[in-house]
Amino acid sequence: MKKWLKQTKNEKGLTLVELLAVVVILGIIAAIAVPSISGIIENSKKDAAISNAQQVLSAARLYAASGGDTDDDFNFTESTESSTEEERTGIAEYHEPITNPWGEADSGVEYTISFTGTVPAIIIEFPDGKCDIGNDGAQTATDLSQKGRDACNE
C-alpha cells in the first residue's frame, strides 16, 4: 500500500508522450476542419450574390409594374459614387445598393436587366470574376431559384 501512495504522489502532470498525443490529435482535427470551414464561407458568399441578383430582379418587376420602360436593356454599375439617391435612376431607384460579398468596397458590381414582356432577366458580374451570373444567358428569378449557388460562374 505504501508503494502505491508513493507512486501517486510523484505523478504531478502529463508525460511528454501524452502531450504529443494530444497535439497530434488536435492537428488532425484542425486539418479536417479548416478546409470545410473555408468552403462553407465561400458558399455563403455565393448565396449572398444570388440573393443580390434576386433583389435586383424584384426591383425590376416593381419598376415594370410601375410603368417603367421595359423595351430597352438597363445597365448599371454599383460604386461608391452611385450610392447617393440622386444618382440612382431607373431600376436602381427601386433597390438598395448592392454590396459585394467578397468585401471589395470600391469595386463596382455591374448588372444588365433585360425584359421579356414584363419578366426581367439579369446578367450580373462581381469583381475579379468570383461570381458571374448569366454567362450562358440572362437568368430569371426562377432560374436563380432552381440553380442556387450553382448559377455563379455559369
From TrEMBL:
Region Disordered, residue ranges: 67-89
Transmembrane helix among keywords: yes
Domain of life of the organism encoding this protein: Bacteria
Record Gene3D superfamilies: Glycoprotein, Type 4 Pilin (3.30.700.10)
Keywords for this protein: Competence, Membrane, Transmembrane, Transmembrane helix
One Pfam family, short name: N_methyl
GO cellular component: cell surface
Keyword Membrane: yes
Signal sequence residues: none
Transmembrane segments: 20-41
Subcellular location: Cell surface
GO annotation, biological process: establishment of competence for transformation
NCBIfam families: IV_pilin_GFxxxE
UniProt-recorded name of the protein: Tfp assembly type protein (PilE-like)
Organism for this UniProt entry: Alkalihalophilus pseudofirmus (strain ATCC BAA-2126 / JCM 17055 / OF4) (Bacillus pseudofirmus)
